[in-house]
Amino acid sequence: MILHRRFCFGLLLLLSGCLVMGCGGKKIPVQVTEPVDGIITMDGVPLAGASVTFIPQGTGGDAASGSTDSDGKFKIQTLRGAPGGGTTPGEYRVTISKIESVPTGRKTTNSDGETIEESTEKQITPPIYASRERTPIIVNITKGKNEVNIELDSSAK
């Protein structure tokens, strides 16, 4: 008798949960994206190891990001999109940033007693390209394949 009551209680709890959450097995809609790739160069030289971010402007569009390979090539993707899948159509402000670790010439001792060379971060790309508000790069992503080639100027202010 106790087993029967537990079973009924468990079944009632399960059915209540289905009513609250819905038993229809609704699927989360798949985000439809358009492929976006390109090449980033600075002063005519491919820019390897740079972070690229597409920030939607106005209505529509989903933020997307990627990074450049050794040839300056990149593909972007949204958070909910497939790797290298691109983003949704719309107007985007594009930020590009490359930071490298460079030695300072000073030495220090780490917690294991080893002597190591200190380093600091150095911004390789001009700060204007990394600024969401100041970047001059604006692109429009449309349906279909989008190739976005960007030339940076190392002397940009």
Task: Explain how this protein is built.
The protein is α+β, with helices and mostly antiparallel strands and 157 residues long. The protein has a single domain (36-152), classed as Sandwich (Immunoglobulin-like). The chain contains two helices and twelve strands, in the order H-E-E-E-E-E-E-E-E-E-H-E-E-E. The strands form three sheets. Strands 1, 2, 5, 11 and 12 form a five-stranded mixed β-sheet that branches. A five-stranded antiparallel β-sheet has the order 6-4-3-7-10. Strand 8 (99-109) and strand 9 (115-123) form a beta hairpin. The relative contact order is 0.20. Mean pLDDT is 85; it is low at 1-20.
Helix-strand makeup class: alpha+beta
Radius of gyration: 25 Å
Dominant shape: elongated
Mean pLDDT: 85
Label the CATH architecture: Sandwich
> Low-confidence spans: pLDDT under 50, at least 5 residues?
1-20
What is the helical fraction, as a range of percent?
Answer: 10-25%
Give descriptors for this structure:
2 helices, alpha+beta, 157 residues, 12 strands, disordered N terminus
